[in-house]
Design goal:
16% of the residues lie in helices and 23% in strands. By secondary structure, it is of the alpha+beta class. It has one domain: Beta-grasp domain (Ubiquitin-like (UB roll)), CATH 3.10.20.
């Protein structure tokens, strides 16, 4: 199983769980499994046309998937996916 770490601000949409395990072979499949289980997450992670939102960064084992194969990045048992929303603001 692949473990997906849920960031604190999004846990309220994932049953207050800090992580969810899914069976998947790619990042895209893993995220699809996550939103299938927790549909309220979809609007926070994806645009209306199904693309990952620009401010949502996804990492597999600490590597940014934007520099790998994006949602086609392979995952396997024991891999960890982290969803990291960008934070803006300040002075």
């Amino acid at each position: 199983m692949t473990k997906i770490h849920i960031p604190t601000p999004l846990r309220q949409y994932a049953g207050k769980q800090p992580a969810v395990e899914v069976k998947a072979t790619t990042v895209g499949e893993a995220l699809a499994g996550l939103v299938a289980r927790h549909p309220d997450l979809r609007r926070h992670l994806y645009t209306d046309d199904g693309k990952l939102r620009a401010f949502v960064n996804v990492y597999v084992n600490d590597e940014d998937v934007r520099y790998l194969q994006k949602d086609a990045t392979a995952v396997g048992d024991g891999d960890t996916i982290s969803i990291v929303p960008s934070i803006a603001g300040g002075r």
